[in-house]
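Researcher: Next sequence.
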Amino acid sequence: MHIPSFLKRSLSSLRGGSWLTVAVGAMLLFLFPCDGYADRYVDGRVAATGTGTLESPFKTIQEAAAVATAGETVFIRAGTYRETVTPANSGTDSASQITFQPYKDEAVTISGADVVATKWMQASGKIYSTELPDLYKSTLNQDEQVFVDGEMFTLARFPNIPAGADRLQPGEAAYLRIDTVTPKQEVKNGAKDHEWPVGNGGAVTFTFRDSALTQETGYWNDATLWIVPSQHKAWGFGAIGPVLSHTKTPEGGGEVRAMIYDGTESFFHFHPGETRYYLFNTKACLDAPGEWWLDKATRRLFVWTPQGDSPASHTVEVKRRDYAFDLTDRSYITIKGIQTFAATITTDRDLGNGAGHGAWVSGNRGGYGLPQGAPGAHHITLDGIKARYVSHFEGTTGHLHSQWINSSGIALSGSHHVLQNSSIAYSAGNGVVVFGDNHLIRNNIIHDVAYSAPLASGIYIAQIADNSKGTKILPMDFEIANNTLFRSGWGLIDGSNLFSSDKSKPSRIHHNFIDGAGLMTRDVGGVRFVGHRDNPPLVNGTRIDHNFVRNVTSYLGNALYLDFNDGYVA
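Model: Next structure:
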């Protein structure tokens, strides 16, 4: 039986009371039946959807989410649910939440990927192909992603990642080095070259030569370039863009003209013999097990399995949804013990689309005179979730400082959210990005993030966001405690925008274990704060204590990075 929230409160006050109050409680239960407060049940294995009872469950979680109201629990039977869940209602208070959880600890996964069910044919050698029914239409500007038997495959590239190599530290054999480079030419906003529109901050074109590119003229014309423009300078984020032309040189190497996207032209620094790059996303690169390529014009997917056999003998999936849960403007909702795959969770779908500026640049850095708006979503709890492959993109195509801050990772915007006892693994960007105030992030394991080398972290506290109500919320009064974070292409905890409203009760980052930031980039900290030198009244003694940080070994890497700021207590 499910007890209405007002009776829960009444009965809780009766504990230890007289026989009279107990009798009154029993009479209340008799007089006020619990119709309308029944729990909901979901079982994706049933042939047809039912009424939502245990005996006649709904077939999809969304059917339950459309009718669940305050105080109810949605119990989900074992299985993989390929859908985005958007609750229609909110809870009313902490005693009357809407809860989504597995039934009796059964294994429940909400997936953003769909199984490829079309027929496979042998294309050539050990490469097989099939025609997909559609392409991925991401509202977050993210990229196609392919999985075989639950593991992410690599979009075909040259040179290949050596067999068994680490994606974040694949070794020198996974990269080429430029020999010479011509001066850069800036491309203004709004221009268009190839299929790539130039967004906020513009782009640059340049030409480089490499003796390792021995292929005939035009071989790389349709490829995409991934490159780290900065080498001994700051950051070293990975940028991508189209190859505009490729020519075989008389000396026997190759010359490539390319465009890459990076909002600040002055941060492009090329160092012949040192600057790393690779070429990818062309059929010519599909030459090794564990790779895939998609001809978007024909929707034809090509795959080479590790065994070289037909993908029909495996489970092949393609990413098709951004979100497992969309909790925009919802409150008092708990998600407990659920796994997510190839999708993320958001409390504000309007945070950003990954196309242009993010909070790092577009916000007024240090501007503590901005209005503090009422949050959209509040009191959301994520407890014991297991999230894998939360965000995926191949690299930065917008502003290097900010493109993926708002729109990658689990996105928590609003007030009084809790993320606890959970694991988040494998993200091209953030593990979790947090906006707003009074959030608690504790006892989580977050690892293998920022694997495309953007400005992103295991936990990124974003400065200012326009939420779906059009209000501004400053990040303050957080507690980030007892988390284990390891292996990031860039940062692991970035608290640059973490403020405190009360100096006697400051925001606090404490008792976290942090291992291995900056595996693909440089100028980073295990715990990092930057950019608030002029407003220590807003910082208000934000505190960093009792953290264990190791293996920040990149150029300009520090365990604790305090840069251009004042007012913190470490």
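Model: Helices lie at 5-12, 19-31, 61-65, 359-362, 536-539. The CA atoms of residues 397 and 510 lie 35 Å apart.
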